[in-house]
Specification:
Two copies of one chain form a homodimer. The first copy, chain A, is an alpha/beta fold and 532 residues long. Chain A is built from 15 helices and 26 strands. The first copy, chain A, has a seven-stranded mixed sheet with strand order 2-1-11-10-12-13-14, sandwiched between helices. In chain A, helix 1 runs antiparallel to helix 2 and helix 1 (9-18) packs parallel to helix 8.
């Protein structure tokens, strides 16, 4: 058969040729924003590749981005990857020190930045001498200096040096993207995506039992493009010629509801907090989203009650999913026609990912259904070795350890039961915080909930229940603990309840348990003991 | 990212693990047939790999099949491919001489055959000394001798030598399948499919705008597994865990209608003549197919009126498509939600295939929409070089010449306008038979129609209209020609109308124009001249 390399620039080429006028719409802080067809975007993006070459960037060089979901960010994605540069997406919610460590490890030579993030980029560039060029998207930057870097605006760079470039003229195993994990459980680790891994991930996600996006769809990407390839959607949309709707910086309920209505969004993807905002907005202001058919959620486990509320209020099917930065990121997803919320878990793995459950020693469990084990995965879009690591992150059978505890039901639906690193060892036995959090989280006045370990002289560790009440209500700690009786073993029930006004969140929106543990250790937590 | 080879055995592995009890149902000449889950089929198929190794077959060896769509045929597919053998599907409608030439070129070492085809296999084996083993599926063979080959029944072979085998332990560019083109326009040519090309073709076909098969579907494969990978459906069904319904030998309307009803078929794939049979049966006998949602048709252009009749009578959407053996075979397909019949043509190319239109000299047409040109294609599942050919079958840009004349509308829908080899050169200008056939084919009393060239002293060539009337009606030749006036240029109108009782068909069901031209040349055609 023909030689044909699997490179991601082919997605945009395909869209430009077969859906030239299908639009990419990017909202801009509530204003009209930008609107462009795939053919025009492909031309701009390809000419931007030429500009990147003209300012000295070469095959394999890293181009960092610090940007929201915008047309310019999408242009940089394809301009970098198409030319064989590595698009290194940075999370603007990381601290500047954290970002500087990442940029230094990656030796990023250029940094493309949304104008509203220019101050952060300025601090970062001052710390990172590897950054030779800063490209400011959207507008003129608010300041003029970014360390020693030469500063361009996106449009000025295109105008000065834009030129047609040859795309995809390299091996499909070439690096395309770089993304660091959130580091909630340790130092951030880089995952280097290849063209092949992204291409195969795209086809995998496009299956009819997965994202099932068609050329007739209008797709809202409310998941940040700086995190894990934006769930692969910036590849999937042009691959099928779907309309691509990018919310820019503002993902509050009012902005998203307006955008979804204005652009007839049929499929929307984002984490549950985003949809809570949309629900609350619609409940308060009224309104419907008549075109919406499906919502793809991921990030962390969504309570069944919220799924039911979303399906009822929005008139759309909710597809639960599970993924990780290390998986490009799609692991499992509930099909569009999945059973009710309670029975779908995080869905099933579409072709292209193998899962297995092991015991704590890594031995494959003899029974893989209806039991909880450590979840390991294998596939062409799964990390083999972290960026610049000395050794593979794989077991002897070539599987990657997700660090998750999970179970799989008889229908093949995965349920994440917790993180292995969160487990609490009390009296030589394991307590799974996620199970306790699940139960307490169902209480109508509980907003966010976390269970962490505190050192205990007698038992080794004991669980502490930390809650953020809803709307400032003061909770009855004893009543919360009572909800656990009969649901978990008595010795699993925490000895201490701590109420916090605001739960600390890590940069990806997950609860920051590292900070919670530190706060506890430093005596910054006042709690209420359990009545035993 | 992880090393992971794209091999087709992973489709069946995935189904065995994630849809172990989803069934493969094979009808057996009107009787109950077989019914087995994917896990059980995977075990049998894998053990059959062990048996093939035990009788001496080695990596890269060719195993021919001469078989209907049955469970055993599917087992051989995966047993051969999984072990790195090449599954060479033979078309039982080819003549024995034709088959012998193909088997000799391929040097097939084994031949697996449906019991009802054993007599043909016997003749074939006698002519082909390369065949060392004959495996008779389904039942005891009606005769004992197959040339000098050792004879096994499928079950006896499994019982005697079945053993677990290692699957997919080779490069993804290894050959998986071999299929020869029909040879309506010349000598048959072999297309050697690789694991990679089949894997990528499967993911391509599974997109939501293409075949869009889900795990909830029940898929009828009424297209023969011996032709062009059975449109890739024996791969696509296990890849998503769909129920797979195989009709065996009998694809008449009554058998198919019963099978579709009994097995709640939701998606059915086959050529138009098959659906005509189903329609006629249901019209005569009554009955509905309530589960049926979609019908995928291909092979040759289907009249709009027949599409509309199918959609109305069967209550299902018809997806038109275009493909070739050389394309694995999917080229274009109309999405499930495509516009009305008249506007969908043969559909659009899902990601993974590039198309271009050129002039007769191979130069790309400056305008690619709304004009007719020679259709050339490129992609990872497109032939690069025919089996055992001396040179690539590609142009300087790496495109394969399909031999089709085609146009593409503004929406990207392809319409095949004819075959370049069928074109008739009259007075130095080209006449396209397909356009004439289209118009005459709309006449309610015309069954099949073909336009061929006859030599002409003055004009070089002139067109002859050959028709097979419906149900033995005698047609008025002048009236037929009259339908062309105003629709095509006057000089395109044939000078001669020939009525035949039965149109000669090639082994793949297409009209055999080679035979028609030979019959005309030999004076075996009596025609009616045109009144000018």
């Amino acid at each position: 058969m023909q030689a044909y390399t699997l490179t991601v620039d082919k997605f945009l080429d395909h869209a430009a040729k077969w859906s030239p006028n299908r639009e990419i719409v990017a909202a801009d802080q509530g204003r009209a924003g930008s609107r462009l067809g795939y053919a025009a975007l492909r031309t701009r993006s390809n000419r931007l590749s030429g500009a990147l070459a003209a300012i000295g960037l070469r095959f394999g060089d890293r181009v960092a981005t610090l940007a929201w979901n915008t047309q310019h960010h999408l242009e940089i994605y394809y301009a970098a990857m198409g030319a064989g540069l590595v698009c290194h997406t940075l999370n603007p919610r990381f601290t500047v020190a954290h970002l500087a460590a990442i940029v230094s490890e990656a030796e990023d030579r250029a940094l493309a930045v949304s104008a509203s993030l220019a101050p952060l980029a300025g601090e970062l560039a001052a710390l990172c001498p590897s950054i030779e060029h800063v490209i400011v998207m959207d507008a003129e930057p608010p300041q003029r200096t970014f360390g020693a870097a030469r500063v361009w605006t996106h449009e000025a760079l295109l105008e000065a040096h834009g030129a047609p470039a040859s795309w995809g003229a390299f091996d499909e195993h070439a690096a395309a993207g770089l993304c660091y994990t959130s580091g909630t459980t340790g130092n951030p680790k880089g995952v280097l995506y290849t063209h092949r891994s992204n291409y195969l991930h795209t086809l995998r996600a496009l299956q009819a039992d997965a994202f099932a996006i068609t050329g007739a769809d209008s797709l809202l990407v409310a998941v940040p493009m700086f995190h894990a390839n934006g769930w692969g959607l910036p590849f999937a949309a042009p691959a099928v010629g779907a309309k691509l709707v990018l919310p820019g910086r503002h993902t509050d309920g009012a902005s998203l509801a307006k955008l979804m209505r204005d652009e007839d969004v049929t499929i929307a993807a984002g984490v549950q907090t985003v949809w809570l905002g949309v629900l609350d907005h619609l409940d308060a202001e009224g309104g419907e989203l008549p075109a919406l058919k499906r919502i793809i959620i991921g990030g962390s486990k969504c309570p069944d009650a919220l799924i039911e509320r979303m399906e009822e209020r929005l008139g759309a099917r909710v597809q639960t999913s599970w993924g990780m930065t290390e998986l490009s990121p799609l692991g499992t997803v509930a099909p569009p026609d999945a059973p009710p919320a309670a029975a779908r878990g995080a869905g099933r793995p579409p072709l292209g990912l193998d899962l297995k459950l092991t015991d704590a020693d890594g031995a494959t469990l003899p029974k893989q259904r209806g039991v909880t084990g450590r979840l390991k995965v294998k596939g062409p879009s799964v990390v083999g070795r972290y960026y610049k690591a000395d050794a593979d992150a794989l077991d002897s059978e070539g599987y990657f350890d997700t660090g998750d505890l999970a179970s799989i039901d008889e229908e093949g639906n995965l349920s994440i039961a917790g993180r292995t690193k969160d487990l609490i060892k009390s009296g030589g036995e394991w307590i799974n915080p996620a199970e306790i959090e699940d139960i307490v989280g169902r209480h109508p006045h509980v907003g966010l909930v976390a269970v962490i370990a505190r050192p205990d002289a007698r038992w080794g560790e004991r669980p502490v229940l930390v809650v953020e009440p809803r709307q400032g209500v003061r909770l009855d700690g004893q009543a919360l603990l009572k909800t656990l009786r009969g649901e978990v073993a008595d010795w699993w029930i925490p000895d201490l309840v701590v109420q916090v006004e605001t739960m600390p969140l890590a940069a990806t929106g997950k609860i920051d348990k590292v900070k919670l543990r530190a706060d506890y250790a430093a005596g910054r937590m006042a709690g209420e003991g359990a009545n035993r």
